[in-house]
Amino acid sequence: MDSAWSALNADIQACQRCALARGITNKVPGQGSVAVRLMLIGEGPGQQEDAQGLAFVGPAGQLLTRMLAAINLNRDEVFITNIVKCRPPNNRAPLPEEAQACLPFLRAQTRLIRPPVILLLGASALRALLGEDKRITTFRGQWVERKGFSLMATFHPAALLRDPDKKRLAWQDLQLVRDRLAQLAARPGAGG
Ligand code: SF4
Question: Which domain holds residue 33?
C-alpha cells in the first residue's frame, strides 16, 4: 500500500461527512488487492461488516465468494467495497445524500486502483453511479463504458439469498464479466 492509499484510508476513518458516522462500530473502506482487474461495489456495510470493519463478510459475502469462485477468482484477486463506508441503521439502503457524501471516497479508490472492469452489486450501487432512474431488473447485464472503465450491474448477493430464482440471471452476468476479463488478459502486453 502506498502513501496515497494510506492517506485515503485515514481520511475515511476520520470522516464525519454524513450522519451515518454516528453509531457505527467500524468504518468499512473495503478490501482486496489494489492491483486488480475487477472491482466490486455493493450498497453498504451490514451488521457483521460493521463489527469486523470488512466488506462482504456475512452470508451475502459468503455467497459472493462462491460467485467469484465460479468465474475462477478468489477474493484476493478483486477489490470489494461499497457505496457508503458506514453502516446505515437497520441495514436500510443509503439515502441519496449519504451516497453522494461518500462517493468522493469511492472515486478516489477507483482512481488509485484503475480497475478496467467494475461490477455494481444491486440497485443502490447502480443508481448512485449510473443514475437514479436506473432499475436493476432492466439494466443488469449491460456493459456501460465510462471514463475508461467497463461497468456492469447485477443483483446484490443479498437479493439472491432472498430470491434464488434470480441466481440464473446473475450467473449470466458473471459469465459476461468472466469473458470480458479473459479478453483483457489476452490483449498484447496485458500483465498478470
Ligand atoms: S458514510 Fe462515507 S461520507 Fe458518511 S460518514 Fe461514513 S465515510 Fe463519511
Answer: 3-186
**Which residue's CA is the nearest one to ligand 1's atom 6?**
86
In a domain, 191, yes or no: no
**Domain for residue 82, yes or no?**
yes
Q: Is the CB of 18 under 6 A from ligand 1?
A: yes
H helix or E strand, kind and range, residue 79? strand 79-82
Which residue minimizes the CA distance to atom 3 of ligand 1?
102
CATH label of the domain that carries residue 145: 3.40.470.10
Q: Has residue 141 been placed in a domain? A: yes
| Cβ neighbours of residue 69 closer than 8 Å, sequence gap 6 or more | none
Residue 98 counted as domain residue: yes
Mean model confidence pLDDT for the chain: 95
Q: For residue 159, which of 80, 93, 78, 115 has the smallest C-alpha distance?
A: 93
Q: Is the CB of 20 within 6 Å of ligand 1?
A: yes
Q: Is the pTM of this model over 0.90?
A: yes
Count of domains in the chain?
A: 1
User: Which ligand 1 atom is nearest residue 16's CA?
Assistant: 5
